[in-house]
Amino acid sequence: MPTTLRSAADLPDLSGSTVVVTGATSGIGRATAHALAAANARVVLAVRDTGKGDAVAAALPGETLVRRVDLGDLGSVRRFAAGWDEPIDVLVNNAGISVGKFGRTVDGFERQLGINHLGPFALTNLLLPQITGRVVSLSSQAERMGRLDFDDLGFERRPYKEGAVYAASKLANLLFVAELQRRLAAAGSSVTAVAAHPGLVATAMTGQTTGIARLVTRWFAQAPEDGALPVLLAATGEVPGASLTGPEHLLHMRGGAEVIKRSGQARDAALAARLWTVSEQLTGVSFPL
């Protein structure tokens, strides 16, 4: 298995493997699903809009399945997990959002925290008895600016700022991966948990930026196919558990994929354990092993 990845054409043959990719109808998720399918994996598109999912699946090579899951609705997450009883080699927690206005999920959580962290947290733990290989969660170097206030995780009392809330959710992703890996190792499981930072990518989400950020995106953003490379390395490469993959160049914002550094707070074991406990309380979902 590779320790770096510069092209999806370099993926190993994934025949016989099943990979679940959330948010696979556009952007990085769609590019990830396409590359995995081209490498002969059976790809499950876990998506909110099954009509879009069917259209994407029809354009992918190999065997694909489409299943509905809305990460902003824990009832939907539970239904997806209850309806799945086959082995999963890799779960890719790709789906995520960044929104400018405060909103709530079906369960009453702030939307970015709910969809970017709590939904994937619940989905992963519910599916974990079926996962045989790896859990990959998309994060971002924005985690370095993230802060978790456990008295106001949902930014209900603090001023709501899109970037601050997004960064906090991306920090939560890395802390989740770290604590999940610790628990897997303690349980004697061979499953590993890895995070991926795709870099600066031109997607529908980054296309909503304004001002200087919009210009930076226009000048420097890479295509979703390139942004998928760190995800693919995390899913198939020889990378340590709890590690973070990201682009090789331009301050880890463009080109290729390698293992990169996490911030000090993303490696804080006590912080990770506290977030896990709170996440269990909020979702009602616990570590199953």
UniProtKB/TrEMBL annotation:
<dbReference type="GO" id="GO:0016491">
    <property type="term" value="F:oxidoreductase activity"/>
</dbReference>
<protein>
    <submittedName>
        <fullName>Short-chain dehydrogenase</fullName>
    </submittedName>
</protein>
<keyword id="KW-0560">Oxidoreductase</keyword>
<comment type="similarity">
    <text>Belongs to the short-chain dehydrogenases/reductases (SDR) family.</text>
</comment>
<dbReference type="InterPro" id="IPR002347">
    <property type="entry name" value="SDR_fam"/>
</dbReference>
<dbReference type="Pfam" id="PF00106">
    <property type="entry name" value="adh_short"/>
</dbReference>
<dbReference type="InterPro" id="IPR036291">
    <property type="entry name" value="NAD(P)-bd_dom_sf"/>
</dbReference>
